[in-house]
Design brief:
By secondary structure, the chain is α+β, with helices and mostly antiparallel strands. The protein has a single domain, classed as Trna Endonuclease, Chain: A, domain 1, CATH 3.40.1350. Helices cover 38% and strands 33% of the residues. It is globular, with a radius of gyration of 14 Å.
């Protein structure tokens, strides 16, 4: 499945999770719920995936943890706060660059309306 098709399923699923659970719970609650929802749609979902990085010849076994990786193609970073910052937005872009993934989402479940909590990020897509 193409990244954009996965993105549509991810967004629709996030909106559904947010509609049922509402805003303001812990990120982990949304992570578990969204992963479950995506799996029921037949997608492969990994949670809290350690991502190794290299910097100037130094290899870091765990540079960061991706909240979700969907079908080994799309990185999803979850937040649950009133407003996302510029640093939050840059974080997903950095994750894409370091992993060479093409598509990522920052999903803020703390937003009153889920559509206002969606940030789409691309890397050479």
């Amino acid at each position: 499945m193409h990244e954009n098709d996965l993105g549509t399923i991810i967004i629709d699923s996030a909106i559904d999770v947010h509609r049922v659970l509402g805003p303001g719970l812990l990120e982990t609650v949304y992570e578990v719920a969204l992963a479950h929802k995506l799996r029921t749609k037949g997608l492969s979902v990994e949670r809290q995936v350690p991502i190794a990085i290299e910097y100037e010849g130094i290899f870091f076994e765990e540079g960061f943890r991706a909240d979700l990786i969907v079908d080994e193609k799309v990185i999803v970073e979850l937040k649950s706060k009133q407003e996302v910052s510029a640093a939050d937005r840059k974080q997903i872009q950095t994750y894409l660059a370091l992993t060479k993934h093409k598509l990522g989402y920052l999903l803020n479940f703390g937003a009153v309306l889920m559509k206002d909590g969606i940030v789409r990020a691309v890397n050479k897509l």
